[in-house]
C-alpha cells in the first residue's frame, strides 16, 4: 500500500470517518477517498453501495473493472439510561459488533455490578457528550423515560447526524417530547428522524425482547443509511 494511501486511511480512522480505496485492476493504480471528498461520478453507485454494506466490491465500468476496499469506523451504541433494557443490550450489542457506552447520572442504577465489561459513565449527558462527541457512526438510544436526562442527548444526536436516534416511550410520551424539542428549536425534519416508540414492532414485552427489537432496528438503520451522506460525486 502506498504511503499516501496509508496516511489517508489513518486520517479517516482518527476522525471516525469512512474511507474507500479504489483499485483499477488494469493499471494497478489505487486512489483513496475519505467520505465527503469528491470522487469520479462514474464510481458513485459502486462506492455508495460499498459504503452502505461495509463490504469490498468488484465493479465493471465500461471495458475495465475496479476493486473497492472500504474502511468504516467501528459502529458505536450510546445508551442513555442504566435500566433493564440496557442490561440486555449490554450482552447483545458486543456480539453484533458494537462498542457500547451507557450514560446515566443516577448512581443507584449506574453500578459496575449491574454492568460488567461495558463502559459505564455515571454522569449527566450534557457533561459527558461535549468531551465524547457523537458522530454519524453512532447510534443513540434514550431509555430513561426522564426528559431531564433524555432530551439533551437526543438533541445532540440529531445535531451530530447519528445514523440512529431512538427514544423509549409511548406515542403520547413521544408527542410531549416532540413539543419540548420544537420549543428548544429543533426542526420538524430532525424530529422526524427519531425512532419512537423505539425498536422494531415485534410485539416485544420483556426488557430482553425490547433490547432485541432495538438492536435489530439499529442494525437496519446502519445498513440502510443514506449513501448520499457518505460522499459526493463530481
TrEMBL record:
<dbReference type="InterPro" id="IPR027051">
    <property type="entry name" value="XdhC_Rossmann_dom"/>
</dbReference>
<protein>
    <submittedName>
        <fullName>XdhC/CoxF family protein</fullName>
    </submittedName>
</protein>
<dbReference type="InterPro" id="IPR052698">
    <property type="entry name" value="MoCofactor_Util/Proc"/>
</dbReference>
<dbReference type="Pfam" id="PF13478">
    <property type="entry name" value="XdhC_C"/>
</dbReference>
Amino acid at each position: 500500500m502506498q504511503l499516501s494511501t496509508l496516511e489517508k486511511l489513518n486520517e479517516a480512522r482518527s476522525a471516525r470517518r469512512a474511507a474507500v480505496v479504489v483499485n483499477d485492476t488494469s493499471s494497478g493504480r489505487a486512489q483513496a477517498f475519505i467520505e465527503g471528498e469528491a470522487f469520479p461520478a462514474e464510481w458513485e453507485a459502486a462506492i455508495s453501495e460499498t459504503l452502505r454494506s461495509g463490504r469490498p466490491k468488484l465493479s465493471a465500468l465500461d471495458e475495465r473493472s475496479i476493486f473497492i476496499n472500504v474502511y468504516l469506523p467501528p459502529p458505536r451504541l450510546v445508551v442513555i439510561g442504566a435500566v433493564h433494557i440496557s442490561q440486555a443490550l449490554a450482552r447483545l450489542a458486543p456480539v453484533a459488533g458494537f462498542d457500547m457506552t451507557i450514560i446515566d447520572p443516577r448512581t443507584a442504577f449506574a453500578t459496575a455490578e449491574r454492568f460488567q465489561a461495558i463502559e459505564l459513565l455515571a454522569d449527566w449527558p450534557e457533561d459527558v457528550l461535549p468531551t465524547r462527541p457523537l458522530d454519524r457512526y453512532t447510534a443513540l438510544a434514550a431509555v430513561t423515560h426522564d426528559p431531564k436526562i433524555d432530551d439533551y442527548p437526543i438533541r445532540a444526536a440529531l445535531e451530530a447526524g447519528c445514523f440512529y436516534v431512538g427514544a423509549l416511550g409511548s406515542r403520547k410520551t413521544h408527542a410531549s417530547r416532540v413539543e419540548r424539542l420544537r420549543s428548544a428549536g429543533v426542526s420538524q425534519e430532525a424530529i422526524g428522524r427519531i425512532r419512537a416508540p423505539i425498536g422494531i414492532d415485534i410485539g416485544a414485552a420483556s426488557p430482553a425482547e425490547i433490547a432485541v427489537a432495538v438492536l435489530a432496528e439499529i442494525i437496519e438503520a446502519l445498513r440502510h443509511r443514506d449513501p448520499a451522506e457518505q460522499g459526493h460525486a463530481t
